[in-house]
Design goal:
Blueprint (H helix, E strand, L loop, with lengths): L1 H16 L4 H15 L5 H13 L4 H44 L5 H25 L3 H16 L3 H18 L25 H21 L5 H13 L8 H10 L6 H13 L7 H40 L3 H30 L3 H15 L5 H13 L5
Helix pairs in contact: 1-4, 2-4, 2-5, 3-4, 3-13, 4-11, 4-12, 5-13, 5-14, 5-15, 6-7, 6-13, 7-13, 8-9, 8-12, 9-10, 9-12, 11-12, 14-15
Length: 394
């Protein structure tokens, strides 16, 4: 019971303070789950991130669900999802209307939150890079991965980068001597096996596929079933998560006339201003369409594929990661994850947040307060928002 309550409390705290989008969320998770609470090691966390990059859906939410599953089983995963999601769900049901009415999408405090994201992600890259990409060849894999992600910015590029990095790890991690010309793999932490069986994992994967086939046939009944199908498909067919789902939702929801273009864009603006996963944009759309019941159905439908895929994949992943060949591959994958974070740090985080020397200076101060003064992330969020509102930076 204590483990479940702790999971709910910690994930709720993250849901209330995790501004900045999916990549920044991974930084918040790293700071809370790896650095402070030591629930996962650096390598295990990077492996979970890599697994979620392979799966369709919101990667940062899937990482949070995966941590909950490892820590507290099925109920732990559910509580982690609820804690991280409910603050932004409620905020978007209310704040979406506020954003439409007041037009504050360009407010200074919002810009301050973008600078907070710069500091958070930089802190995560520094910590993960020291552990997972410190050797010459590992650092090379990380930099090549970052360059590839920047030069060919597609969701499928990320999958290709991770796959090629795994192949490089298998080829280069021939021994652990650390001699020139060889790649010293990252030492595997003690395995924290998710308390889920392979049979349960297979049921989850079959349920994911079954709903993907069945819901389009059931949508002919119209009403809430049609809405559930649109949101479930949007959550099932998106690699990269976050902003990538918006074109699908626009086609499925606004394109069908369920909400107007103005309502859709207003909700998108609200989603940028609140913490937590961007997929909770579905809660706003569901509210506009069918009120609170619509918000509940839309939110559950868009996140259900992510939950089923993580719960289905983890039992097999925990076994695979202990195979010697897989351990060599994971050394390359870990370095690639650092590279992908580095690429995302530049675009979109740096490019959208840093527009002046003042911005860079304020972000650097936030980084020092987080990394060296060890202030909690929520205090950094408050300082960043207050500084932006007072015109510091920008």
């Amino acid at each position: 019971m204590a483990v479940w309550l702790e999971l709910l409390w910690v994930s709720t705290k993250l849901g209330l303070t995790s501004f900045g989008g999916p990549i920044a969320h991974l930084g918040y998770f790293h700071d809370e789950y790896v650095c402070r609470r030591k629930w996962l090691g650096e390598g295990e966390y990077a492996e979970l991130v890599a697994l979620c990059q392979f799966l369709p859906g919101p990667a940062s939410s899937q990482v949070g669900i995966g941590i909950g599953l490892k820590r507290g089983g099925l109920l732990g995963g559910i509580l982690s999802f609820i804690g991280f999601t409910w603050p932004s769900v409620l905020a978007l049901m209310l704040f979406g209307w506020y954003m439409q009415a007041s037009g504050t999408d360009g407010s200074g405090w919002l810009h301050g939150l973008k600078l907070v994201a710069v500091a958070i992600v930089a802190h995560a890259i520094m910590g993960m890079g020291q552990k997972l990409a410190s050797g010459r060849l590992l650092a090379t894999i990380a930099v090549v991965s970052a360059a590839s992600a920047l030069l060919w910015p597609t969701a499928f590029t990320q999958i290709a980068i991770i796959a090629l990095a795994a192949a490089a790890g298998v080829w280069l991690c021939r021994d652990q001597s650390g001699e020139a010309g060889t790649l010293k793999p990252v030492e595997m932490e003690p395995e924290r096996r998710a308390p889920l069986s392979r049979r349960f994992g297979m049921i989850c994967l079959l349920l994911f596929a079954g709903l993907l086939v069945a819901l389009p046939m059931l949508r002919e009944t119209g009403g809430l079933m049609a809405m559930a199908d649109s949101f479930y498909r949007s959550g099932s067919l998106v690699f990269g998560g976050g902003h990538v789902v918006l074109p699908l939702l626009e086609d499925e929801i606004a394109g069908r006339g369920w909400v107007s273009a103005e309502q859709f864009l207003a909700g998108y603006g609200a989603a940028q201003a609140v913490p937590g996963p961007l997929f909770t944009f579905a809660a706003y759309l569901g509210t506009v369409m069918e009120g609170p019941l619509g918000a509940a159905i839309a939110t559950l439908a868009i996140f259900l594929p992510a939950f089923l895929l993580v719960a289905g994949a983890l039992p097999f992943w925990d076994t695979l990661r202990s195979v010697p060949l897989a351990r060599r591959a994971l050394a390359g994958v870990n370095a690639a994850v650092v590279g992908l974070l580095l690429a995302a740090f530049y675009d979109p985080i740096w490019t959208s947040a840093i527009g002046s020397p003042q911005d860079a200076a304020f972000a650097a101060i936030l980084f020092v307060l987080l990394s060296y003064w060890k202030l909690p992330p929520w205090i950094i969020v408050v300082i960043g928002a207050a500084g932006g509102a007072l015109g510091i930076g920008g």
